[in-house]
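Budget justification aside, the reviewers requested a transparent look at the raw inputs and outputs of the sequence design task funded under Objective 1. We therefore reproduce one unedited record. The lines immediately below are the structure tokens for a 146-residue chain.
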């Protein structure tokens, strides 16, 4: 249909590689803090689990926030803040600001809102890696499961 446009951001190598590189950098930093244990030991798998959990939670949370904000979830909080700063800062901003919240929402709906599912998927990938490392760690510490 004409006029209806898909607000999804096209999946590109850049949209996947940037969160993947950031997550890998965080994981390596967490892994290097305190030294890397000997490979194949229970401590190694525990440390690897921790190293993958941190970027997994961060990127998944950022991806969810990006998806929610793209749906207009935070418009109710953004409007009064913008309105207050517009009143304080300048006459020009006050004139540009929509008069009512309804006007603000309809204006925002007309603008393209990009969704960022790649960050969410990369975060979930790191959480899956953390789960695999946890399972491998549980081979060395059976008391982990009770």
């Amino acid at each position: 249909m004409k006029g209806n446009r898909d607000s999804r951001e096209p999946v590109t190598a850049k949209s996947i590689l940037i969160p993947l590189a950031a997550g890998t950098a965080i994981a390596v930093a967490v892994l290097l803090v305190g030294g890397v244990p000997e490979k194949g030991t229970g401590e190694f798998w525990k440390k690897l689990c921790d190293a993958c959990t941190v970027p997994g939670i961060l990127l998944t949370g950022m991806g969810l926030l990006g998806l929610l904000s793209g749906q207009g979830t935070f418009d109710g909080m953004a409007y009064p803040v913008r309105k207050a700063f517009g009143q304080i800062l300048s006459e020009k901003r006050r004139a540009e600001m929509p008069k009512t919240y309804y006007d603000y929402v309809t204006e925002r709906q007309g603008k393209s809102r990009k969704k960022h599912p790649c960050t969410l998927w990369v975060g979930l990938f790191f959480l899956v890696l953390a789960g695999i490392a946890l399972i491998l760690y549980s081979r060395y510490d059976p008391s982990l499961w009770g």
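Residues 1-7 have pLDDT under 50 and may be disordered. Residues 41 and 140 are 7 Å apart (CA to CA). Computational costs for records of this kind are itemized in the attached budget.
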